[in-house]
Design brief:
The chain has 379 residues and is mostly helical. The chain has four domains: 49 residues, no CATH class; 97 residues, Helicase, Ruva Protein, domain 3; 147 residues, Cyclin A, domain 1 (Orthogonal Bundle); 61 residues, no CATH class. It is built from 21 helices and no strands. The radius of gyration is 25 Å and the shape is globular.
C-alpha cells in the first residue's frame, strides 16, 4: 500500500469514526474490506468496536486493583506455571520481536505475563487458560499497550473466544473444526473428504488458527493485525470460514508435495509451515465463501451441536430461536409427562401445567397433542 493510499484510507476511516451517531455497520464493513490502516486507526476503530461488546469485567474495579488481587491469586492458581512457560517462549517468531535486545524482550514478556495473570486469575476466574491465548494477548499488547489491551482482551474473550475458555475442547473446538470441514465440503467435497479421512473428521492442524486467530502461525505482525481487523469486524463464525478458505487456497501447493493420496503426515507438515505475507486474497476468499454459504445452514445440517450459549450462535438470532424452541418443546413434554404419570384429575393437571410451563406453554402443548391426535385418527 502506497503512502497516498494509506493516507486516503485513514482519512475515510476517520470520517466514519467521526459520524454522530456512530455507524457501526459501516465501520465493520470498512474493517473487513480495508482493515484499520495503521496503529493509530487500529487503536481508534478496534477500541470503538470493543466498547460496544458485552463484558465480563466489573467496571468498578480498576486495573491496579485487579493487579493487586492477581498477585495474591497467582500464588496457587492452576494455570500459573503454564502461563509462565508460554510467556517465556512467546514472541520468538513474529518479525517485530525478532532482533530485540534481551532486556527489551523480557520487558514485553513481563507485561504479557502480568496481563494474563490479572485477566485469568482475578478478572475472569470462570475461564480456563489454554495454550495459545498468550499469542492473542501478545498482538493486543503490541497494538494497544497494557491498559487498553486488557480492555480489548476482556471483550474479545467474552464475545469470540469464550467457547474455548469455558468448555472442554471436545465440546467446543473439536466441533468448530468439524464445521470448518463442513464449510470446505460445500466448495470442494472431494478435497474436504480427503482431509477428513486423513484426520478422522477433525483437522487438528487448524486448532491454533481458531484459538489464536492465526497469530501463532503467521510471522509478520502487519499480516496478523490485518487478520484481527477483519475478525473483530465480523461475527465469530468468520474464523471458521477463514480456516476453510486457508485450506482451500492451499490445495494446489499441498497436492504438489505428494505423489499419491493425502495422508496425515503430509498435510500436517505442510500446514505447520504455512505462512501468508499478503492476507488480502485470504480475506476476499473468506468473504466470498460467507456470501455463498450461510452459517445457519452449516450448523443446522451438522450432527454435532455447539453449546446453546456458544458465541458462534450469538449473532445468529434465527438459529438461536430454533435451539430455544427445541429446548422449550422438550421441557414441555418432560413436565407434562411427569404430571400425566401422576394420574392427576383434569382440573388439577391443567392448573399444574400452567404453574409449571405457563399459559403460553400449555397452549403450545395442547396444540401439539391435538395435532398428534388428529394425525393418528387420519392414519
Amino acid at each position: 500500500m502506497t503512502q497516498t493510499s494509506t493516507n486516503s484510507k485513514l482519512h475515510d476511516l476517520l470520517e466514519i469514526l467521526s459520524e454522530k451517531p456512530r455507524n457501526l455497520r459501516k465501520l465493520k464493513e470498512f474493517g473487513r474490506v480495508h482493515g484499520f490502516v495503521n496503529t493509530y486507526g487500529r487503536n481508534l476503530a478496534m477500541t470503538c468496536l470493543a466498547d460496544t461488546m458485552k463484558s465480563n469485567r466489573n467496571i468498578q474495579t480498576g486495573y491496579e486493583q485487579l493487579k493487586k488481587e492477581g498477585a495474591d491469586a497467582a500464588l496457587e492458581h492452576k494455570s500459573k506455571h503454564q502461563i509462565h512457560v508460554d510467556v517465556e517462549r512467546a514472541m520468538n517468531c513474529i518479525d517485530f520481536f525478532i532482533g530485540l535486545q534481551e532486556d527489551q524482550l523480557q520487558y514485553h514478556r513481563g507485561n504479557l505475563e502480568e496481563i494474563l495473570q490479572i485477566f485469568i486469575f482475578t478478572n475472569s476466574p470462570q475461564y480456563s487458560y489454554y495454550q495459545g491465548f498468550h499469542d492473542v494477548t501478545t498482538v493486543l499488547l503490541y497494538t494497544f499497550g497494557i491498559n487498553e489491551a486488557f480492555n480489548v482482551l476482556d471483550k474479545l474473550s467474552e464475545n469470540y473466544f469464550k467457547d474455548a475458555l469455558t468448555y472442554p475442547f471436545e465440546k467446543s473446538v473439536n466441533i468448530q473444526l468439524e464445521l470448518v470441514l463442513k464449510i470446505l465440503e460445500h466448495f470442494d467435497q472431494p478435497y474436504a473428504e480427503a482431509i477428513s479421512t486423513a484426520y478422522g473428521g477433525i483437522p487438528v492442524f487448524a486448532v491454533s488458527w481458531i484459538l489464536t486467530w492465526f497469530s501463532h502461525s503467521f510471522k509478520k505482525m502487519a499480516t496478523i493485525q490485518r487478520i484481527f481487523d477483519f475478525l473483530i469486524s465480523s461475527p465469530p463464525s468468520s474464523i471458521l470460514y477463514m480456516c476453510a478458505a486457508t485450506i482451500l487456497i492451499s490445495k494446489e501447493k499441498l497436492y504438489e508435495t505428494v505423489d499419491d493420496d493425502l495422508d496425515i503426515a503430509v498435510i500436517h507438515t505442510y500446514f505447520q509451515k504455512l505462512d501468508i505475507e499478503d492476507p488480502e486474497f485470504l480475506i476476499s476468499t473468506t468473504m466470498e465463501m460467507e456470501k455463498q454459504l450461510d452459517f445457519q445452514k452449516v450448523v443446522e445440517t451438522h450432527t454435532s451441536q455447539l453449546p446453546e450459549d456458544s458465541v458462534f450462535l450469538r449473532f445468529n438470532k434465527k438459529h438461536k430461536r430454533v435451539l430455544k424452541n427445541k429446548y422449550y418443546q422438550h421441557e414441555l413434554q418432560r413436565k407434562s409427562q411427569n404430571l400425566l404419570s401422576q394420574g392427576e384429575p383434569n382440573q388439577t393437571l391443567q392448573e399444574k401445567l400452567i404453574r409449571n410451563v405457563g399459559t403460553a406453554g400449555l397452549l403450545v402443548l395442547l396444540g401439539v397433542v391435538s395435532y398428534k391426535t388428529l394425525s393418528r385418527k387420519k392414519l
